[in-house]
Amino acid sequence: MGKRLLTLTLAISMSLLVGLTGCSKDSSSTASTSGKKVEYSKNIPEKISKKSDKVKVMVIRKIGGDDHTAQYLAGAKNEGESLGFKVDTFTANGDTAKFHDAINQAIEKNYDGVIISHGDDAATVDDVKKLTDKGIPVVTFDSNSDISKIKGVTITSQNDESLAKLSLEELKKVTLGQAKMAYLWVDGFPPMVSRNKVYQQLLKDNPGIKEIDRFGVATADTSVQTQNAVSAMLTKYPKGQLDTIFATWDAFAIGAARAIKEAGRTDVKLVSIDVSNADLQAIQEEGSPWIGTAACDPKLIGAVDLRILAKKIAGEETPETYKFEATLITQEQLKSSGKPVNMDNLSEIVQGWGKSDAFQEPWMTELKGIFKK
């Protein structure tokens, strides 16, 4: 009896040992924050699979207060969490001091990676250098071009030249090359500088299009200030003296559209850059002056930026720069759908919208399967 029991115990022990040994050949594990073990295959990069806790990422954006910002941050957060990462987000709403303070906190808290959006000043370059010196990977979006001098950083941006060209071509088409225009633009941001170059070239090439006034601020209440400014313009320039507005940012366009509708100026048309749920709703409203906008999907931008950062954290090669291609969205397209169009179903109207497998590695797909909610 005792001998049979000893033999059985040894057999069970050997079976467990073989099972555990076989498991260790095909996978590694890491503890999740819930205290449970998550089993990873050997396909997952070691720098991620060997961590004792979740990968921690910080996304910091200087501008804010608009739906575009909310969509961008949501895109990055959702993509990161789908990989099992912990993603913190922060928007400074245009406050420079708060923006740089957030970056310094990210340095002190030892995040595994940081994404910086709209860091336009020289101090951002210094901040990025501090991060990389500490070994923290960085991806930037629409930020100071001097960051390109820092080794290992990926600079992403919308194709701002294409955005401006698409929007302005729609303006030319609608006005037949004859327009008295108000220009809504603010200097100091890299994307705005690029868009302005295209705009200035348009004025040179099309003498029938004339700028008669301009306005622009980048604050937490940009739309409100723009609405007030455009209302004043519409009073200053009666019918026949102002017929078109070009908004280089949708925060400008939202305020301008409200002002035009409130003034009852059906003669004034609005074209813009960027898009959000609020924008799509305004464009589809009955009698809306907003006839079109050129845009890249902000949610997709956030997601792709996160993928690039994930590759950096994993120790994989990434490009120095990456540009997101632009798409024109017209009022005519939206109204032809026969139903309300928002950011979720826009892809049904605009082919390819919101979809990209850029930097989507097989190991990321595997992680998404593991952490699928």
TrEMBL record:
The record's listing under SUPFAM superfamilies reads: Periplasmic binding protein-like I
The Gene Ontology terms for molecular function here are: carbohydrate binding
**Pfam name, any one:** Peripla_BP_4
Please name the Gene3D superfamilies in this protein's record.
3.40.50.2300
Q: Which residues form the Periplasmic binding protein domain?
A: 59-317
The compartments listed are:
Cell envelope
Q: Which family does it belong to?
A: Belongs to the bacterial solute-binding protein 2 family.
Q: What is this protein called?
A: Sugar ABC transporter substrate-binding protein
Q: What is the lineage of its organism?
A: Bacteria, Bacillati, Bacillota, Clostridia, Eubacteriales
